Amino acid sequence: MTVPPYAIAFVIMLLASYSSDHLKERGYHIAALMGVAAIAYALLATLPEDKLGGKYACVCIAVAYVYAT
């Protein structure tokens, strides 16, 4: 259960790194990644306890995007 967030983070990190270096806009990429992570954390905090699949998806997204920044 701990591998998918980091596997997703690896792919997102590669894509964000390539894009930010190519466009030379590192700050915008960091802001966008942190915005997505903030939304995932907000969803994680507000989802009901019985929605474990949704909570796990939010954890995967949040960990991946924070790690990619």
Strand content: under 5%
Mean pLDDT: 93
Q: Which stretches are low in confidence, meaning pLDDT under 50 for 5 or more residues running?
A: none
Oligomeric composition of the shown chains: single chain
Number of helices: 3
The major beta sheet can be summarized as:
none
Question: Can you tell me the overall shape?
Answer: elongated
What series of H and E elements makes up the topology?
Answer: HHH
Structural class: mainly alpha
Quick structural overview:
The protein has three helices and no strands.
Task: Walk me through the structure.
With 69 residues, this protein is mostly helical. The protein is elongated. 86% of the residues lie in helices and 0% in strands. The chain has one domain. It has 3 helices and no strands.
List keywords for this structure.
mainly alpha, 69 residues, 3 helices
Topology, pairings included?
Elements: H1 3-23, H2 26-46, H3 52-68
